[in-house]
Design a protein that fits this description.
The protein is of the alpha/beta class. It has twelve helices and 14 strands. The two termini are about 35 Å apart.
Length: about 350
């Protein structure tokens, strides 16, 4: 059994990690950390965990001391120091924040207003989207865990882009998220009277996930990529629905596209390629690490449409982080993550 610790355990992603790691066959939850609730039991913050996880929220130092794999569910800008300490101690560090996701420091400076304090760590960090970069993740000790939109959009488009069946220019990602994606701290637009019976676009054309989506698609296409990305806020707790539009390449057909998706994702446990005529739905992936993908075409305009659905707290955060831990330590990739989505 490996000993897992969580920094930021009282945030939504951290609390989801607690739930998933508590059922992992090869890992034990050794420590939880929180700045806001230091000294208090986690079950006081989340009463659902009463009698199941009553661990006392400790400091960063306590979490690092007790763990040999550390998950950081922290706001951007706060993961570089604990990552350095973990590297020096030979511990595995999985960052659910954005500090190690972007490979170009200029992008990080522009979108997150930060700097690479330890450039050697950024050189070592691998991007943890297993279905696309699995072999680069195996055995690594510093893993940048992608976020929700940055998982849903590339998974929706990768096979079509990789096989040259869609044009790389003019791609549009029209996405919608459950409110947990905004974090636990309440803001005006997540206040119930504002959110309920509403759907609104936010950070239109300027969301921080834009360069990360473009980076992943650039790696797939082998050229610079620019994507129009528009996120929306849904009045639901969980889920990401990404509807992605791209122009068909000459000679592309739905048969060729479906064959490309089947070839790439057929062996993947966590990706479910839906049959023709069905559309991906966030309800059908809730509380699971699955990504459902449906493929569509507008023959009148020559437009390919891929729709992906994930649970933003699982495949879009904590579940993918556990998947990355499994790859890092050589466990079965599905360990601790095989629970079915609820049927209703």
């Amino acid at each position: 059994m490996i000993r897992a610790g969580i920094l930021g355990a009282t945030g939504y992603a951290g609390a989801e990690l607690v739930r998933l790691l508590s059922g992992h066959p090869d890992a034990e939850l050794a420590a939880v950390g929180s700045v806001s609730y230091t000294g208090k039991p986690l079950s006081e913050v989340y009463p659902a965990y009463y009698g199941l996880c009553d661990k006392i929220c400790g400091t960063q130092e306590e979490v690092l001391e007790k763990s040999n794999v550390v998950f950081a569910a922290l706001p951007s800008g706060l993961s570089q120091e604990p990552a350095k300490l973990c590297r020096e101690a030979g511990k595995t560090f999985i960052d659910l924040g954005a500090d190690f996701r972007l490979k170009r420091e200029g992008d990080y400076r522009e979108w997150y207003k930060g700097t690479f304090r330890y450039p050697e760590l950024h050189e070592e960090a691998v991007y943890g989207l297993p279905e696309l970069f699995r072999e680069k993740i195996r055995g690594k000790k510093l893993i940048a865990n992608p976020g929700c939109y940055t998982t849903a959009v590339p998974l929706a488009l990768a096979p079509a882009l990789e096989s040259g069946l869609i044009l790389p220019d003019g791609i549009v990602a029209d996405c919608a998220s459950g409110v947990t994606g905004s974090g636990r701290k309440m803001t005006q637009n997540t206040h119930f009277p504002e959110l309920n019976e509403s759907m609104t676009a936010y950070k239109v054309g300027c969301h921080r996930h834009t360069p990360e989506i473009e980076q992943t698609l650039r790696w797939i296409a082998g050229r610079e990529m620019h994507v129009t990305f528009v996120p929306h806020l849904l009045p639901v707790s969980r889920g990401i629905l990404a509807t992605c539009y791209a122009k068909l390449a000459p000679g592309a057909t739905m048969e060729k596209i479906r064959a490309a998706y089947q070839a790439k994702y057929g062996p993947e446990y966590f990706i479910r390629l839906l049959p023709e005529g069905r559309a991906a739905d966030i309800k059908n992936v809730r509380l699971s690490n699955f990504c459902d993908i449906s493929l569509h075409m507008d023959v009148r305009t020559g437009t390919f449409i891929a729709v992906s659905a994930i649970d933003n707290m699982v495949k879009g955060a904590a579940g993918q982080a556990v998947q990355n831990m499994n790859l890092s330590f050589g466990f079965p990739e599905t360990a601790g993550l095989t629970a079915f989505p609820p049927a209703f």
